[in-house]
Design brief:
Number of helices: 10
Largest sheet: 6 strands, mixed
Shape: globular
Strand order of the largest sheet: 6-7-8-3-9-10
Structural class: alpha/beta
Distance between the termini: 49 Å
Strand content: 15-25%
Order of helices and strands: EEEHEEHEHHHHEHEHEEHH
Number of strands: 10
């Protein structure tokens, strides 16, 4: 590791691996939300982060792409320490990280196609973006992705005319449009009904899997996490208390993560 540039060297560099070391985040001094997170994720497959509300799942996701500023620690990805980047270097790094948001984060007054093409903003000159003159290859690819998420006929519709599930499909397609090396998904199903939630996770898993893009998803629904993720990270109190395969997640682990028998009984009743 180069202490000045934060760049990984030699055999330590694995193109799409993500290494988090001693990550701490305090919104208020002395009250850490993340308490020294250490996590190494290989550059493939889907990892689901589960845990109760307020335990730091979203903060962890957002620290990775610096939507939230870490208090201390390292976030090593694609040969760089993301926690140290500023300005142009940070903008370039963010181009390689697609983001799927809980509340979709679409520009409501723009069309579905325009929202999708916004995933290419970091790759075209400012004047082209301003005039909405994107390369034909980007437009063709956007149409392909709209077909892939089942929205081919909605290209010219305004985003605010779509349902929640349709908006999230646009959000996933927009993230894929970036041609990222990593996708972060922050509670992508929390506003959706159970059937639509399964559809959204299936689309995210399929599109990212076909392109061999690793995904880290923060999700409340344990059953969805176990169904779609190859690895589960369980958090409570700002710490990791489980890290392993879905079939290794026991009721005892869930009691540790969520606390007590009552939660398991509510889950069984639900």
């Amino acid at each position: 590791m180069n202490a000045v540039t934060g760049t990984m060297t030699g055999s330590a560099q694995d193109a799409r691996s993500l290494v988090i070391r001693d990550l701490v985040k305090e919104y208020r001094r002395g009250q850490p939300v993340l308490r020294g997170i250490n996590l190494t994720l290989p550059g493939r497959g889907m990892t689901a982060i589960i845990g109760p509300s307020g335990t730091g799942k979203s903060t962890l996701i957002r620290c990775i792409n610096r939507l939230v500023e870490p208090t201390s620690g390292q976030i090593l990805f694609m040969g760089q320490n993301l926690a140290q980047l500023r300005g142009r270097q940070l903008r370039a790094a963010r181009r390689r990280i697609g983001m799927v948001f809980q509340e979709y984060n679409l520009v409501e007054r723009l069309t579905v196609m325009e929202n999708l093409l916004s995933g290419r903003l970091g790759y075209v000159p400012v004047w082209r973006a301003w005039l909405r003159k994107f390369p034909q290859k980007d437009i063709d690819r956007a149409f392909e992705l709209l077909d892939a998420v089942g929205l081919g006929q909605y290209a010219t519709q305004r985003a605010d005319a779509l349902s929640g599930g349709q908006r999230q499909r646009v959000g996933i397609a927009r993230a894929i449009m970036q041609e990222p090396d990593l996708i972060l998904a922050d509670e992508p199903t929390s506003s959706l009904d159970p059937k639509t939630s399964v559809e959204i996770m299936d689309i995210l898993s399929a599109l990212a899997g076909e392109r061999d893009i690793p995904v880290i998803v923060n999700i409340h629904n344990v059953e969805l996490a176990k169904r779609f993720a190859q690895r589960i990270v369980g958090m409570t109190g700002g710490k990791i208390v489980y890290d392993g395969p879905p079939d290794g997640l026991t009721d005892e682990d869930l009691r540790t993560i969520y606390g007590g028998e009552d939660w398991l009984n509510d889950r069984a009743d639900g």
